[in-house]
Amino acid sequence: MSEPDAADEEDEWNKSPANYRVHKKASKQQWDQSRAVRSTKGGKAQFNPYTYRTYDLIHALELRCIDEGTSIYDGGDLKTYYMEDEMLVGASKGEKTYLVFVEWHKRDGFHGRPISRQELRTKGVAV
Q1: Please, what is the average pLDDT of the chain?
Q2: Do residues 24 and 57 lie in contact, with contact meaning Cβ atoms separated by under 8 Å?
Q3: What distance in Å separates the CA atoms of residue 78 and residue 21, rounded to the nearest whole number?
Q4: Res. 13: pLDDT tops 50
Q5: How many Cβ atoms are within 10 Å of 96's Cβ, its own excluded?
Q6: Non-local CB neighbours of 105 within 8 Å, separated by 6+ positions
Q7: Beta bridge partners of 108
Q8: 53 to 3, 63, 94: CA distances (angstroms)
Q9: Where are the domains of the chain?
Q10: pTM, rounded to two decimals
Q11: pLDDT per residue over 19-36, tens digit each?
């Protein structure tokens, strides 16, 4: 089976929920030139377009974080988790990261994003 081309990947993202598209703006060219990484300093975290190029791959990472990751908070309606992945997850706060953070809202489902070590520390995690 061949790799999906850029048009196939773009179609996949256009069908994905809007909350996923907010963290998948970087093209491979922007990522290679570090423009995507720099843009996360004051903006939204971005998934690595090579490793997590489709909604399904990100969704699988989020589920793995919930199943295998470390629980940070369990407040009944909200649960949060983090996990360090073997692959480069993306960029957050201007730096590349192997960490993913997932919020699981009882009523709204779950949503994940790349997260920096500094951001995790602000959530009380000793990393």
Answers
A1: 84
A2: no
A3: 22
A4: no
A5: 18
A6: 77, 78
A7: none
A8: 11, 16, 20
A9: 6-122
A10: 0.80
A11: 555 566 677 888 888 888
